[in-house]
Amino acid sequence: MDGVLLLNKPAGMTSHDCVYRVRKLFKTKKVGHTGTLDPDVTGVLPICIGRATKIVEYLTASSKTYEAEVTLGFSTDTEDASGEVTQSAPLSEKPDEESVDRLLASFKGELEQTPPMYSAVKVNGKKLYEYARKGIEIERPKRMITISAIERISPVVFNGTTASFKFRVTCSKGTYVRTLAVMIGEKLGFPAHMSHLIRTGSGRFALEDCRTFEEIEADLTDESVRLIPISEALNHLPKWVINDTLAEKVGNGAVLPVPEEFTGADEDVRVAVYNRHGECLAIYMKHPEKPVFKPAKVLATD
C-alpha cells in the first residue's frame, strides 16, 4: 500500500509510537511521520506508507495550524503542563482582552525563537532533552520562524491566581508553540506555560479528515481504509504535466530543460512532475549552476 494515512494522534503516544503501531497494522516497515508531536499533544499527524515515505520531507515543510491554551501565573521547565514549576507570580486580576488581542497581533510575521531545553533539537550531537534530563542547560541556537495568523479563540478566564485563554496559530515548520506561549506570557508580564495543544492542520490536511486508531483498525477489517495517493498529497506543489516521451526520461532520472512556465521561478522551488494519467513521477528542481531541471526525488514505479 502506498499513500498518506491521516491519523488523529491520541494523547500519551509519541510520534514514533504511532509509526510503530502503523507498521504492525499495515504489515510493512516502510512507514514515516511528517512532523513530530509531543506525547501530550493530539491532532493531525500525516503518516506516509510504502513509496509515500519518499515524500515525507515535502509534507514536513508545510505550515501547521494549532489550537493552544496559554496559562499565565507560573512557568515550567518543559514549558507545558507536564513539567515542574520553575517560576510563579500569582495574578491579582484578569488581563484585559483587548490588550491580549493587540499583543497576539504583534506576533504576526517573522520572529526569533529559542528552542526549549526539552526538545529534540541537536547540539553537539546530542538532543537537548538529553542535556535537560541531566540538569545541564546549554546555549541553544536561535531560529527564525514565521507566524502567518494568530488570534484568541476563547475568553480570558481568571481563576483567582492564574488566567488562561486559547488561541489559534498558523506557523512555519520548526515553531515551538509551547515556547510561543511562554513568549506571550513574557510580553504580558507574567511567567506562563502552554496548558493544552492540538494540531488542527498540517499543510492541506485538516483534523476533520483524520481518523483515530480505532477507526483505522475498523476500516482495515472491512478493507475500506483510505490512503491519500501520492499524487494528491503533493497538490500543494507547482504542477508540470509531461508527455510519454519525457515521462520515460523522468523515470530514469534525466536532467531536462527548464519548462517555460518555470523559468522565472525561485531557485528553491520544487515542481511535481505528472504524466498524462495523473501519476506523479518525480519532483524536480532548478540546477544550482546550469539552466536545466534536475530530479530532487524520483517517484516513478517500474
UniProtKB/TrEMBL annotation:
NCBIfam families: TruB. Residues 178-224 form the tRNA pseudouridylate synthase B C-terminal domain. Responsible for synthesis of pseudouridine from uracil-55 in the psi GC loop of transfer RNAs. Its EC number is 5.4.99.25. InterPro entries: PsdUridine_synth_cat_dom_sf, PsdUridine_synth_N, tRNA_psdUridine_synth_TruB, TruB_C. One of its GO terms (molecular function) is RNA binding. The active site is at 38 (nucleophile). Coiled coil: none annotated. This is tRNA pseudouridine synthase B. GO terms for biological process: mRNA pseudouridine synthesis; tRNA pseudouridine synthesis. The keyword Transmembrane does not apply. Pfam families: TruB_C_2, TruB_N. Belongs to the pseudouridine synthase TruB family. Type 1 subfamily. Gene3D superfamilies: Pseudouridine synthase. Keywords: Isomerase, tRNA processing. SUPFAM superfamilies: Pseudouridine synthase. Residues 77-98 are annotated as: Disordered. It catalyses: uridine(55) in tRNA = pseudouridine(55) in tRNA. Residues 23-177 form the Pseudouridine synthase II N-terminal domain.
